[in-house]
Amino acid sequence: MAEFSDRGFRGATIASIAQRAGVSRMTVYKHVESKEQLLDKLSDYYSGRLRSALADVIDDARPCWEVLMAIGRSLYEDGRYTDSRAIARVLVIEAEHLPHLAKRGLALRETVLEPLADYLARLSLAGVLAVDNAQRAAQQFLNLTTNSVDYLFGGADVQDGEREKYIAAAVKIFLYGVHVRRDTAPADLAG
Predict the structure, then answer these.
(1) Handedness of CA 55, 56, 62, 68 (dihedral sign)
(2) Residue 182 — very low, low, confident or very high, per pLDDT cuts 50/70/90?
(3) Nearest CA among 100, 110, 104, 92 for reference residue 4
(4) Within a 13 Å sphere around the CA of 55, how many CA atoms are in the beta-carbon half?
(5) Which of 7, 8, 38, 130 is surrounded by the most beta carbons within 10 Å?
(6) 100-130 b/e with 16+ CB inside 10 Å = b?
(7) What does the DSSP 8-state code read for residue 180?
(8) How far is CA 133 from CA 27, 47, 119, 121, 141, in A?
(9) Taking all residues of the chain, what is their mean pLDDT, rounded to a whole number?
């Protein structure tokens, strides 16, 4: 991932990746046929890690605002990992030259967000939320919770309290947008 991040996908070679990893090219080729396949495996790994983190915090017995806060924290924390930001940058930067990467990235995003989309669909069926398209609602939640400047640029210097306020504000905006019953969210959610 560091090689892709430093040199870009097109600039990286299997030889340079092997050298950086301290292994032979043949060792790399035993695991992958090409750098495209290596990028696919890296994308799958990081996507699976985030999907698991989201699934782990969803608990239907908790109030929805608590679950959404936990999901927001998981999304935010994953984006603070250097490797997660690096893979996202590579996929975005190379999407113009390698359109199949853009399509794959969108498909992976849907897969990652399935636990959240399923959760939102259950809440909608229960009459707690008004969600027409759970997958689209999950994507909007992702956008609300991860589009801050400190998230995008890895602001490690942002205090936890400030981060909590940002996530709480995003959850509140989301809940108002999907017409959550007002009695299910605390009045002071955004601090």
Answers:
(1) negative
(2) low
(3) 92
(4) 10
(5) 38
(6) ebeebbeebbeebbebbbebbbbbbeeebbe
(7) -
(8) 45, 22, 12, 8, 12
(9) 84
Whether 33 has a pLDDT exceeding 80, the answer reads yes
Q: Span 6-33, mean pLDDT?
A: 90
User: Do residues 9 and 98 touch, judged by C-beta distance below 8 A?
Assistant: yes
Enumerate residues 6+ apart whose C-beta is below 8 A from 45: none
The pLDDT of residue 162: 78
Quote the pTM value. Answer: 0.80
Q: What is the pLDDT of residues 125-134, one digit of tens each?
A: 998 899 999 9
pLDDT at 8: 79
b/e 7-29 (16+ beta carbons within 10 angstroms → b): eebeebebeebbeeeeeeeeebe
At residue 77, the 3 state secondary structure works out as helix
What average pLDDT score do residues 100-117 get? 88
Neighbouring residues of 102: CB distance < 8 A, sequence distance ≥ 6: 91, 95
The per-residue pLDDT for 157 is 58
Q: What is the CA radius of gyration of the chain?
A: 19
Q: State which amino acid sits at residue 147.
A: N
How high is the pLDDT of residue 190? 43
